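Bug report (template v2)

What were you trying to do?
Predict the complex of my protein with iron/sulfur cluster.

What happened?
Run completed; filing so the output is reviewed.

Input:
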Amino acid sequence: MTLAAVTTEPGAQQDATKGVSEIRTFAVDPSRKRWTREEALALYRAPFNDLLFKAQSVHRANFDPNAVQVSRLLSIKTGGCAEDCGYCSQSARNGADLKASKLMEVEKVVSAARKAREAGATRYCMGAAWRSPKERDMDMLLDMVRGVKDLGMETCMTLGMLDVDQAMRFKEAGLDYYNHNIDTSEKHYSNIITTRTFADRLDTLSNVREAGLKVCCGGIVGLGEGEEDRVDMLVTLANLPSPPDSVPINMLIAIPGTQLEDAAPVNPIDFVRTIALARVMMPKSHVRLSAGRTEMSDEMQALCFFAGANSIFGGEVLLTADNPEEDHDEALFNRLGIRPMEQHEL
Ligand code: SAM
Ligand code: DTB
Ligand code: SF4
């Protein structure tokens, strides 16, 4: 039995550190639908209008269709990462033109968060180019969480792999979300990353959930995957013991010097189908239209919102790559009659 098969069992998730015989159980909603690959693939391949109608109907049953949550990202430690993710500018193992920097000071992080709050962001996501955080950095990281939380914002971190103890310490400091993406299907994973496994990713997700943190987990479209891989990735996410609270769907930003610099561009209709499928399969999650918006037309983004995306990253940089200008996003929201979600609505 593969790990993905184990994790699709209701209420059970394998803990790779304990072996197959010891299974951690979680409280799960027994009425929750379990997705098969066949059902999900049939939806992905349905006539576009049928898929979008379904996605918009599910969206309206669960959310205000005209409100979009805005998160803001900050790279608190950039570049020099030991992992070999084939898409990432920050891996020390690729040839991307990027200056590495050390961990930012706490005060600078908190003052950047304050500015983001003034610009309308409700969630602040701090990212570090690490395989996992080191003990020597924990005190500063915990202070960052406390400082941003004190501003009244939701806090999110993405720092690589965490053990349960680290996850619990973040929870105690006031961390709301932990972002840790599975990125693609289990089958395609080793074509993109070799320094860790899909099972490692699931293990951190389980540790994060066990600590009571909310999970932000999604992936990337455009890694040379087939439609089955996109669907399998969403089946894994939807069948987790609880679906992720936030599901970021990134479109690959092909960065010169990385393994995927020449990856074929993603067909916009296929990207919208992926968003729609995520919305139908994870009706109560925030689906985030994440990286890659600078390459999307306004019309494509509008279709993504119609398909059920209800979160974006605001601000003119993501971690290292460009994001649309804030004026452009404001004008797009106005033209579409979309309003930024307020803190109390989250
Ligand atoms: N190092 C941590 C980790 O890998 O979990 C946190 C930061 S990492 C940059 C966060 C996520 O950003 C990745 O999992 C991936 O999904 C996304 N990402 C990174 N580079 C990207 C790119 N060039 N295009 C699209 N998404 C990207
Ligand atoms: C996610 O899924 N996308 C964000 C966030 N989670 C951490 C990161 C996107 C990074 C895009 C490439 C860059 O800025 O280097
Ligand atoms: Fe490192 Fe994260 Fe980039 Fe992978 S995605 S190279 S782990 S920063």
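What did the reviewer find?
The chain has twelve helices and twelve strands. Confidence is low (pLDDT under 50) at residues 1-26.
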